[in-house]
Design a protein that fits this description.
With about 425 residues, the protein is of the alpha+beta class. The chain is about 30% helix and about 25% strand. α5 packs antiparallel against α8. It is globular, with a radius of gyration of 24 Å.
């Protein structure tokens, strides 16, 4: 049974007040800090080639601290030192960035990577030492805590590029609870991460089911095989169906506005970027069912969101013309649009709302779209419920994390 008690006896240390029976250790004594792989641009490709392995870069770590196994770069594995191959419990951290806010962004591998991989020169790998008696999962939580991230900001320097020096990272002071309590703290915080992961897996299965129904109806036309078919710009389609421009089946396609102040601990509304939620803020732009996709940087990701939210200026928001168009348009964008072909960017990928709006989309009979919407609505309602629960679990976890890892709340039993 979980038993938490507030701590009342503290001692002052260089990192603030901690419980009297806890210690302070330098990061370098409990983990190795490993520099990423340096390589020339001509040595890397965006497709696999013989004897190559993927290299993770800063853009493969989301703002929420999740691994994005997309947009990978590949280099010859002979260029990689054995210690630069990633393994379970490694913590990948952004060491250098043009944005100071992104330095210190991290992700911990909770299991072996999906395939053998390494990491680029703008990243560090923080690898817990086997003989340090520091719980490997707890180390990831401690480095992800608000206080530790503020410490990163204090030591980051640079003009055009903000850098976190390896020596400063190794000298950084961390809490060191007794090993048995380390394990209990890590267990409690891991419960939340595991629940979030389970909800995400549920959503993957639910969405695959919705996609299978969509494909059966509107790509393979299985329920309509006995109907008359006619030629169209999208190939043979059932008679009576139409081909429209995306902009004509929406209320509009909008891009986000300038900068926001992210208040991850206090903000009420999610701020969406091209890769997902960037953080939480205290103002919103939109509400109700909306389809989001990347405008700048990351292209091709499509999200279905609801309730009140805001979008950054690297996102396009597609608002369906009718409510029962929503799931159909979302699944069409997910499966039928070649976003890379719309890219007009030079220094970085870019899609204009005009180009997206001029994409062709199948428009079945309205009664059929209403029937489809009703059929798969329960799947998406469950997906949306899971998304809300994921956001709530994250907020609870983020509230508990600093209390537990700095001993304000003691984990006596689990």
């Amino acid at each position: 049974m979980l038993k938490l008690t507030p701590e009342t006896h503290f001692k002052k240390t260089e990192i603030g007040e901690i419980p009297k029976d806890w210690e302070v250790r330098k990061l370098g004594t409990v983990a190795d800090v490993i520099r990423g792989v340096s390589f020339k641009q001509k040595e890397a490709k965006f497709e696999k080639f013989k004897n190559s392995i993927p290299i993770l870069r800063a853009n493969n770590i989301s703002e929420k601290g999740e691994l994005i196994w997309e947009d990978l770069m590949f280099i010859n594995k002979d260029k990689i030192h054995p210690k630069q191959f990633l393994k379970e419990y490694d913590i990948i951290m952004v060491a250098s960035s043009g944005s100071k806010r992104l330095v210190g962004k991290l992700f911990q591998l909770k299991k072996e990577p999906p395939e053998k991989c390494s990491f680029g020169a703008f990243l560090y790998c923080i690898r817990p030492k086997d003989n340090s008696k520091y719980n490997k999962r707890l180390l990831g939580f401690v480095l992800d805590s608000p206080l530790t991230k503020r410490k990163f900001e204090e030591v980051v320097d640079g003009t055009n590029i903000n850098n976190l020096r390896k020596s400063d990272l190794e000298d950084m002071k961390l809490i060191y609870p007794p090993p048995s309590e380390q394990s209990r703290i890590a267990t409690v915080l891991s419960w939340f991460d595991d629940l979030i992961e389970n909800k995400k897996k549920q959503n993957e299965i639910l969405e695959k089911t919705a996609m299978a129904i969509f494909k059966n109806w509107f790509i393979d036309f299985e329920p309509f095989k006995n109907q008359k078919f006619v030629d169209s710009e999208l190939g043979r389609i059932p008679e009576g169906w139409e081909v429209e421009l995306l902009k004509n089946v929406t209320k509009g396609i909008f891009s986000g506005r300038g900068r926001y102040i992210i208040e991850s601990e206090k903000g009420q509304y999610p701020l969406w970027g091209a890769n997902g939620i960037l953080g939480y803020i205290n103002e919103y732009d939109l509400e109700g069912f909306t389809i989001l996709t990347g405008r700048v940087g990351t292209l091709g990701k499509v999200f279905l969101v609801q309730n009140k939210f805001a979008i950054s200026d690297n996102v396009l928001a597609v608002i369906p013309l009718k409510e029962h168009y929503t799931f159909f348009i979302y699944l069409w964008l997910k499966t039928q649009i070649d976003f890379e072909s719309l890219n007009v960017g030079s220094t970085q990928p870019l899609i204009t709302k005009t180009a997206l709006g001029n994409e062709k989309i199948l428009l079945p009979l309205d009664s059929l779209l209403q029937q489809f919407h009703s059929s798969i609505s329960p799947l998406f309602q469950k997906i949306i419920l899971n998304q809300k629960q994921i956001m709530l679990l994250r907020k609870i976890r983020d509230t508990l994390l600093p209390l537990l890892v700095f001993g304000k709340l003691r984990v006596r039993e689990v």
